[in-house]
Design a protein that fits this description.
This protein is α/β, with parallel strands linked by helices. It is about 50% helix and about 10% strand. The strands form two sheets. Strands 6-8-7-9-10-11 form a six-stranded mixed beta sheet, with helices on both faces.
Length: about 525
């Protein structure tokens, strides 16, 4: 019997939960942090010794796992799309991986499997038959193949494991509807396990814009209602298991104090443990825990892992985590204070990374992405647009820095003042000059933005200097009394702007693209540009 790289007790509570669902004929959705090891855990679950441990010797051979990864999708040439249909690549990969799994079965343990392999192979080859109506037969070929498997033995059950589920959302919604139909034909004998960084219903909202597509996806997603497992950090026993494995890989052994420190600063996050262990082996002795964290953050691999974790969060979750990293208290029920954030706040290494990064941390100087506002671009190249982002720290600080980072990717120079003092007072000369030098004035509008005298002074100065204005309306914004100039605020609110879904974290990329186009179009219309 093949065995997994980890002992069968690895992530025991997670494995027990999933196998209990499968034993009852239910599907399961795994939602995990970036770098938490979702893919390796899925592979672990499907190993024969793990199946035997959780299902018993009698049932394990009759539970067949088919692992499908979107990185292996084969897209036909565009010229063939009209002929083969827009979901062909979905059926192709499911049938391909089903066939591969069946080919690994033993005829002696499962009599008749060789004939089933031939039948499934025929179905798979039929996908490539240019004489068929390929745009409609994909689902029928899959049904036929699964039917052949199910008639082999009434005890057989098939679990389709869809790793990195976000990658499958390029396949049309009707493909997932057909998977639901397949499951309904063989209820409690066909199950699915999905792995993603966000809950499936949130992914549908984010990826699907057509109402009919959402309805079709709903039929598939409802299989997982009440059956979602959040894959968090490792338990203490699994941490020791992973460290032992990594020590063997790197061929050195850590002292007990360093092992304990790694567990402490990573919170048991699998990816951070893997990245940190080789660095920890070279760390100077007798470092304080704070110095140990700083030493880890000098390693590029650790920084990449921290970025991967943050990139798997929604905008609201990132904002909440930043506030926690800065020591700010969050009320229970705060949007963004999710199960994932609750786990991540226990990772000192990640919190230190957040404080260290300019995109998340407050600094004692303004953030100027790209070049200084006073710097002149080379004469041989057209200069880039310059924008000034006005915002209120409470409610918009994180969005301001994230937008600045995104705009910089489009060669737009951004000025964001982070020395926010939310009170009336003399208007700083540096802000006067930054607004004077900008081409476009952007104002982030949350529910309390226009009650800030500080923001209203910036709006008024942009108005008096004739700067084009683009309002960015956040989800919390509503019309409210303001403290600034009527003419200036009216001009801002009447200007063409964008609405950003920063709370629900949907259509963020599309909104940023629209904002970029508005900046570029406005810039082109300015004289001397």
């Amino acid at each position: 019997m093949f065995s997994s790289a980890f002992p069968v007790s690895y992530r025991r509570q997670d494995a027990e939960y999933i196998y209990a669902l499968l034993a009852a004929g239910n599907s399961c959705s795994l939602v995990g942090l970036g770098g938490v090891g979702k893919s390796s855990f899925l592979r672990f679950l499907t190993q024969p010794d793990v199946k035997h441990y959780y299902l018993g010797s009698q049932d394990s051979d009759y539970n067949l796992f088919v692992i499908v990864n979107p990185r292996d999708l084969v897209n036909p040439p565009a010229a063939l799309h009209a002929e083969v249909g827009d979901a062909w690549h979905g059926y192709e990969i499911i049938l391909s991986r089903l066939l591969r799994m069946l080919q690994g079965l033993d005829e002696n343990r499962l009599p008749g499997v060789e004939k089933v392999v031939q039948a499934v192979y025929h179905s798979y080859q039929s996908l490539f038959d240019r004489q068929s109506l390929l745009s409609v037969v994909g689902v029928r070929l899959l049904e036929t193949a699964v039917f052949q498997v199910m008639t082999l033995d009434s005890r057989l059950r098939v679990v389709f494991v869809l790793d990195d589920f976000e990658g499958f959302l390029t396949i049309p919604a009707h493909f997932f509807q057909s998977l639901r139909g397949l499951r309904d034909q063989f209820a409690r004998r066909i199950m699915f396990i999905t792995a993603s960084s966000q809950p499936l219903d949130e992914l549908v909202v984010k990826w699907m814009t057509d109402f009919k597509d959402k309805e079709m996806m709903e039929s598939f997603v409802e299989l997982f209602y009440g059956f979602t497992r959040y894959l968090g950090n490792l338990d203490a026993a699994s941490v020791e298991t992973l460290l032992n494995r990594e020590e063997q890989r790197w061929r050195f052994k850590l002292d007990l104090q360093t092992r304990a420190r790694l567990h402490e600063i990573t919170g048991g996050h699998a990816g951070l443990l893997r990245r940190s262990l080789p660095v920890a082996g070279n760390a100077p002795l007798n470092l304080s825990i704070e110095a140990f964290v700083e030493y880890m953050l000098q390693e590029r691999g650790v920084l990449i892992e921290c970025h991967t974790i943050l990139d798997s969060l929604t905008l609201a979750e990132q904002m909440a985590l930043r506030q926690l990293a800065e020591g700010q208290a969050l009320e229970p029920g705060t949007h963004g204070l999710t199960a994932k954030v609750t786990v991540l706040r226990q990772i000192p290494l990640l919190l230190a990374y957040i404080r260290k990064q300019a995109v998340f941390a407050e600094q004692d100087t303004q953030i100027e992405i790209a070049q200084s506002p006073t710097a002149q671009p080379p004469r041989s190249k057209p200069r880039s647009p310059k924008v000034f982002i006005s915002y209120r720290r409470s409610g918009s600080a994180m969005l301001a820095t994230l937008l600045a980072k995104e705009l910089e990717r489009y060669q737009i120079e951004v000025f964001v003042d982070v020395r926010r003092v939310e009170q009336a007072g003399p208007f700083a000369d540096r802000l006067f000059k930054a607004i004077q030098d900008c081409d476009v004035f952007i104002c982030l509008l949350s529910d309390e933005t226009l009650t800030s005298p500080y923001v209203c002074q910036e709006v008024e100065h942009a108005y008096t200097t004739g700067k084009p204005m683009i309002p960015v309306f956040q989800e919390s914004y509503f019309s409210d009394p303001y403290v600034g100039s009527d003419d200036a605020i009216t001009r801002l609110l009447d200007s063409d702007g964008v609405h950003i879904m920063d709370v629900r974290n949907v259509f963020i990329e599309a909104t940023i693209d629209l904002l970029v186009k508005m900046i570029q179009n406005t810039f082109k219309k300015l004289p001397n540009t």
